[in-house]
Design brief:
six-stranded antiparallel β-barrel, 7 helices
Length: 414
Amino acid sequence: MELLRFFTAGNVDDGKSTLIGRLLFESDSISTDIIETLTRQSKLKNANQSLDLALLTDGLRAEREQGITIDVAYKYFSTKSRKFIIADTPGHIQYTRNMFTGASNTSLAIILIDARYGITEQTKRHSIIASILNIPNILVCVNKMDLVEFSETIFNTIKSDYQSFSKILELDNVSFIPTSALLGDNITKLSTNMTWYKDKPLLNFLETVNIHPQNKNENPRFQVQYIIRPQTKELPDYRGIAGKVLSGNFHCGQEVEILPSNQKTTIDKIEFNQQEIPNASSGSSVIFHLKDDIDITRGSTIVPIDQLPKTSKEFSAIICWMDSSEFITGQKIIVQHNCNRVLGIIKEIQYKIDIHTYDKIPSNGKIKLNDICKVIIKTAQPISYDSYAENKNTGAFILINENTNLTIAAGTLD
C-alpha cells in the first residue's frame, strides 16, 4: 500500500493539532479506550467540553498545559487507499528547527491559515521552509471558517493573496480547502455550511494527491553499512556488502562503481533474508556480492557506472542551526551523510535567509539557534551525494559536535 508522509504547519492556535485529531477521529483511527481517556482529559480542561481532539497530538505535558505544540508529534493511520504518517510541527518561531526536521522527507505540506487573520509572517515563514525543502505539494487549509460565517469571499481573498506570494517562492502544486477542524467541515466529507466549495474534502485529497512528482526518476544509490566476513568452515570465502538501497533499483549483473575510491565492478548476487533475489529497490536492506574482491568500507556508495553522483571534499548547502550554543568559527564538526561520518569544518557562511521575507542577508560570521544559512563545508574525506532537489535520500545530512556528540544542524545539499 502506498505511503504518504506529510506535515502540518501554521501559526500558534491556527488549529493544526485539532485538524489532525479531527482527521484521525472521523477516519475511525482512534481506539475506544483512547477516546474515553481524551474525554476525561478534555473535561479536566473545560467541564463543558466533551472531546478536545488537539490532545491527540499535543503529547507533552507542557503542551497540554499551555495549549500549544512544542515538539514534533508523529501520528500514523491508514485508509483503504493509503497509509499516512503525519508530522504535527510547532508554530512558534523559537521552534523553527523542529519544523525543519519534521518537514524533511515529506511529500506534502498542509499550511493552516486562520480565516480571521489571513496570511501572517508565520504563514510566510513556513512556506519559505517548504520551498527550501523542496516539498512537492502544498495544501493551504483556510481553517476556522465557522468564525467568519463560512464566507466564500474571505476564502477567495486569502486564496488569491497566497497564490501571489507562492509565485515568489516558485511553489508548485498549491491547493486550497476551506475547513473548520473544530466542527469537522470539509475534513472527511463536504461541508453543508460551504456548499459553494465543490472540490475534495481533506481526507479524499490526501488519498488521491500525486506524491510522485512528474519526471522524478531518482538514480540508483546504495550505501555500505557493514562488510560481512563470517570466515567459518561453512562459509570460508563469504564476503557480503550489507547496506540499504537509498534510491532507485539495482539488479544482478549490473556494472557499478564504488565511491569515493572510483573502483569498478559488477554485482554478482543480491541477497535478502538469506535468499538470493534478482533485484533490489529503494528502501530495501540487502547484501551485495561483488564480482571482484575490492577494498570497500562503511559509508562507501555503490552506483551504476553511467549514473554517477557528485563526489567532493567541499560542497555548498543550506543548514538550519539546531544548537542552543552559537557557531564558533573554525570548530571541528562531524558531517553525517546517512551512515557515512567524516570530519569537517564550516569553511564559509555565504549568507543567512530571512525567513520572514526570503531575503538573503550578508553574513556577520555568526550562526545562532534556528538560523537558516547558506554555507560552504569542507571535509577531510570526500562524500558522494546528489542535490536535495534531485534526491532527498542522498541530498540531506546532519552536523554533529565532535566533542559533545550533539546534533547541531541539519542541512540540504546543492
